[in-house]
Amino acid sequence: MLGNLTGIHLLVILGIVVLLFGATKLPALAKGIGQSLNIFRNEIHADGSGKPVVDGTAPAAPTSTNPTE
What we know:
Blueprint: H1 7-21, H2 26-44
């Protein structure tokens, strides 16, 4: 679907974006998108404790703390 986009199509899309948001708001828009992507990536790689996984591996599953076992 998007494989047929050429340079002229991308220029038209860029022109429409500039008309909609204005040239002065584009840096703030890009910064907001970048921050959102960073938060999204950190949440995907989080191990459940709220801390991002730094080394790329998930921590081991916690052992059962049930005293009846």
